[in-house]
Amino acid sequence: MVEMIEVRGVSKSFGSQQVLKDVDFQVKAGEIVGLLGPNGAGKTTVIRILNGVIKADAGTISIMGLSPTQSDDIRAISGIVTESAGLYHQMSGLENLEFFAELYGVEDNAQIKRLLELFELVDHQHKPVGTYSTGMKKRLALSKALLHNPKILFLDEPTNGLDPDGIKMVLSYLKTYNQQTGTTIILCSHVLHQLEPICDSFAFLENKTIVEQGSKQELEQKYLTEIVVSVSTDYVPQEKTFLGFRCEKFENGMTITLPSKEEISTILKELLKHHRVYSVEIANNDLESIYFKVREKINR
Ligand SMILES: Nc1ncnc2c1ncn2[C@@H]1O[C@H](COP(=O)(O)OP(=O)(O)OP(=O)(O)O)[C@@H](O)[C@H]1O
């Protein structure tokens, strides 16, 4: 995959407050990248700089070979969804899309119909947007951002305000859209576990800079120095170790701490000689656990 976005040494201050310092990251074409960090870390600021809404104080940025200062060209190849979706509430969903399609010079008449179908808004297209649920508004805002078939989609906290069903729905639409069209998607959020299933890679923004970037597999390899395996079994450990590995009992089983995944089969073989095993799960390889490891390392 080729680099779609290349950010090098970007810094930004608002007055005397430095928000970004030497930010580096890359995004490959067709990837879904999660830009993750706590509240106030500067995620929105990064998105606004990439879009040319505000200017960086230092550093270089290339978006498909363009600089964010070429804002018209950037707008032509990208779409953005922010918290304030910029929809007209007194107009219907369809009228909103027709209005913005004309504004963006979208000539493909079938595009609105396609998006209404993709985001399951056909039945609601004639209702005023003011009567839409938060989830429907998000889906309409996504449709609006995708009217001109952008190559890159920027999403600022796309799941904010949604209930669990709404979150699942919006994220699965995004994944489907990415797979169907190959559109590169950058989304920022402070809710790590939500983005884990849909992102190909992650960039962690902390202490004003990107402290780590990589795919889940790359991050696991780098940060998971031990594996905690949760085993549901009828075996009840009497000791604090099992086959020499640290273990702890819980109601229907035990957790065992192993130096690597390789030892999982060793402990299972031994257990299955005399006991039943109902499930085996790695308990510490979720994105949140890895993120805590990254933070531990940088704050050391
Ligand atoms: N236009 C501005 N003028 C002054 N300060 C600003 C401006 N925009 C952002 N900031 C400050 O920059 C910091 C980073 O803000 P930003 O919105 O980029 O963070 P964020 O990571 O997106 O946060 P959140 O997760 O809460 O949305 C905050 O301290 C914020 O107050």
TrEMBL record:
Signal peptide: none annotated. Pfam families: ABC_tran. InterPro entries: AAA+_ATPase, ABC_transporter-like_ATP-bd, ABC_transporter_ATP-binding, P-loop_NTPase. Keywords: ATP-binding, Nucleotide-binding, Transport. The keyword Nucleotide-binding applies. Residues 5-232 form the ABC transporter domain. The keyword Metal-binding does not apply. GO terms for molecular function: ATP binding; ATP hydrolysis activity. PANTHER family: ABC TRANSPORTER ATP-BINDING PROTEIN, ABC TRANSPORTER ATP-BINDING PROTEIN NATA. Belongs to the ABC transporter superfamily. This is ABC-2 type transport system ATP-binding protein. It comes from Mesobacillus persicus. The lineage of its organism: Bacteria, Bacillati, Bacillota, Bacilli, Bacillales.
